[in-house]
Amino acid sequence: MKTINILKSTALVLAGPLALAIASPAGAEEWPLAPGDYTEVTGIDIADGGDLAYAKWIATQWADNQKFAISKGWIKSYNIYYNVHKRHGEPSMFLSVTYTDWADNAEQEARNKAYQEYMKRSNAQLDAESGDRAKFRTVLGTTLLQEVTPR
To answer: Which residues of the chain have pLDDT under 70?
Structure first.
């Protein structure tokens, strides 16, 4: 019985430092990539004959909305990309918006209110306008990317 207890004690004494070594390999080694900004990329399919109508909306209303968000410090930047060598089923265009961080729930509500005041339209009006754009574009999906850089 004493032999078993000695073995248990020895195992515990040896396991403690081993667990610490496994938990922090090579000491306090730092992760080699540093987290950065977040970018949302939305893929848009433009219907045949809808390029001009959508381009006009992007160049005016969408760009103005992004400039407003930049002026408030809500976003860092935005970009518009055409998919030049589009394959079947791929988006015609990509819209990107870059954020340094995310707003909490209270901040999101405050931003929505400020945006509505800026737009001088209600949620119902903004929703109806979005539905009107469905005549010439389809949102295929959105991806959230986080930039990382080597330390």
So the answer is: 1-27
Assess contact for 83 and 93: CB atoms under 8 A. yes
Domain-by-domain residue ranges, the chain? 1-30, 33-150
Please give the Cα distance from 33 to 30 (Å, whole number): 9
The set of long-range contacts for 109-118, using a CB threshold of 8 Å and a minimum separation of 24, is 111/72, 111/74, 114/72, 115/65, 115/68, 118/68
pTM of the predicted protein model = 0.74
CATH fold of 33-150 reads Alpha-Beta Plaits (3.30.70)
Q: pLDDT tens digits, residue range 88-105?
A: 999 999 999 999 988 999
